[in-house]
Write a structure and sequence with these properties.
Helix content is 47%, strand content 12%. The chain is of the alpha/beta class. The chain has five domains: 8-238, no CATH class; 250-261 and 271-355 and 374-470, Rossmann fold (3-Layer(aba) Sandwich), CATH 3.40.50; 478-652, P-loop containing nucleotide triphosphate hydrolases (Rossmann fold, 3-Layer(aba) Sandwich); 677-731, no CATH class; 736-814, no CATH class.
Amino acid sequence: MSNSTLYIAHQRKSDGAIQNLETHLFEVSHIAKSLAAKIGLRDQGELIGLLHDLGKYSDEFQLYLKSAVGLIDQDEDEFVDAKGKKGKVDHSTAGAQLVWHEFAKHGEIGRVAGQVLSFCIASHHSGLIDCLSSDVNSFGEDRFTKRINKSDDRTHLQEAIAKMDNTVTVRFRELVNNPEVIKGIKESISKIVRREERGDEQIIRFKVGLLVRCLFSCLIDADRMNSADFEKPHAAKVRQNGQYSEWTYLINRLDSHLSSFVANKPIDKLRVSISLHCRDKAENGKGIYTLTVPTGGGKTLSSLRFALHHAEKHKMDRIIYAIPFTSIIDQNADVVRKILEPGGTKSNNVVLEHHSNLMPEEENWKTKMLIENWDAPIVYTTNVQMLETLFGAGTRGPRRLHQLANAVLIFDEIQTLPVNCIHLFCNAINFLVEHCGTTVVLCTATQPLMNMVEQSKGALRIPPSNEIMPDVGELFRKLKRVEVLNRRKPGGWSDKEVATLAMEEAKKAGSCLVIVNTKKSAQALFQLCRDEKAAMPIYHLSTNMCPVHRRLILDEIRQRLEAKEPILCISTQLIEAGVDVDFGAVIRSVSGLDSIAQAAGRCNRNGRRNIGHVHVVNLSEERVDMLTDIACGQRITERLLDEFEKDPTRFDSDLLGPTAIACYFNYYFAERRGEMDYPVGNKVLGHDDTLLNLLAGNANAAEEFRRCHGSPFNLYLRQSFMAAAKAFKSIDAPTRGVIVPYGSAGKKLIGELCGAYEVEKQFKLLRRAQQYTVNVFPHQLEKLQKEKALHEIQTGVDILYLADSRYYNEDFGLSLTPEGKMEIYCV
């Protein structure tokens, strides 16, 4: 082979520069070593980084790559059809085989260590593979052994060993001969076993699976960063690589801001007290904490105060907020950015937002630089992104997992966690806290009882002393500002009746907020109220509107509320969690009690009135039968409302107090007990199972293996990682982001994206584009595509924008039907 001594990892497209394989392997191993040190697997991270691309030493891969980049002329005999071979030349199995063969010699624990390490290497392009298959056509098949036994003529292991650079060989030998490599994995697994006092095998195996995923995360991030930074070395400057402002510097900025508050009202004094308790509790050790504070108690800055002081005390790497709704991120990140990134501070150096699904799962050289890896001291993301990081498919989500180690994770409005994820979440949080040095804070006014769910499947381990507030019951009594009125009636309220009530309450209380369960109901009520031609502005809010659009509407609403002007707003539930507005009255379509409590937090929020009224009504025309969570919440709340009417003292005479909320979640979790381990049906896998099982003991696949082979499966890892990850994504019908031409700025942004070719420029533009993005469900996406209303921003870049402005409505946002005059962008 020509250029036989030049082993290439990558060639830069811009100038043809070569990154040789030796350099790539050592640089990736160095990064992976540093990242894996956070989970106590420093040497193991270095080893998998060193061998992850071992197969690239083969002639087959080198001929393929050199033909692809033009280093071999197509007239030469050695030239191969690179397009035909793309994705077909295996370069990830050789390193996995070598690691397995070396460690399997050392008995049972050596086989466990070898399996853990080889799993990461073999999976570094696909996402974690299955050990035992759960696919319908290969159920119970030993996929790991099949991969490890792949023939040498396909993996080129012996050829790669013979051609390895001497420096790589020497370091590899030093690592595999170091007994600490096997010992480190043994100690990590032993620590997991020791923490499970009940000896629940399912939970132990689940957490070992998370350990593998964490190590895999270190390899993926190291490989992707090194590859992307070689391709665009000047673009690498956007990375901070963990070099952030000192925590004390950020603490001083926050304290300076808080010191400017003047506590004129009783509620202001309570907020100051809450903030001080958070600061003081931050001195305690790492662990799981709860912050149970009524709505309007100032959790946003109080939790940040805890996090900053706690991170400084324990030398932690970052703070990550996981928030259920992008509308809350819009607001909270903006508040925090103004405090911690004052004038003169480079944007995103402190506060990073990551909450748009703009980019496809498949990565290529162009999108690598655009994918976030949460490299910032304070990150605001969604629950969806957090769960994808913990359990999602491919490499994009798992790449960020190692960033959760030695971090403060704050889950705002934790009660919104999907019920089918409860046990997965509890086990993952326990693992992060107990094995990765993480601290977790669960913030809400309606604390779910995740420490009281079924222990054998995984419940949070929260020490009783880890509630940040010293007397939650007393705090709720002091912060009570509303009265909940049970206005349900037989047959329910018609839309017309609710619209009339809303107009009356807006006139009586000066302002009124109506919150319903569906976008259809919100639009219908808005139309009815607007048709009345009332002498007050009427607003509509839903997630069909892009963040910039929602923010402008909310800003206008706040200005009118501050000016005490009459106003009426019809909204979906996006407004009820964390959005800082203060209405005179609230009407809430009956829903879960936690949602009603959140809605109540938008009423008399700042204590300007003696008491505010929250009207709970049952809408006869609202259909929630297909919305399982809402329908179940309605049933439980109706039961609780009936019980409260019979004996209010049983609930301390407070329908929104801790006693009533605890009762609600007891009922709710009891009804949904069978759904909390993430059931997966026959349509997805070909058999009934749960994600908890697939990611732990994988009992069904293991039994099928035993049935087929007459003996038990004899490897420690048996999870169906890939099947579980794909099932996790497919069940939840993931949304896709669509950039919309809202306003002149949105139209200009789309034009810039369509014309941009430099990765650095796209990086900045896509950050801005998050604010002009609406997430749509698959059926909506399909309809818009059939109408030819969506285009790619560039050919081959699977990022979509709305090309026909008729499908974006000023009142309702993105619509599936066109209105007005056609205006096309960037065709």
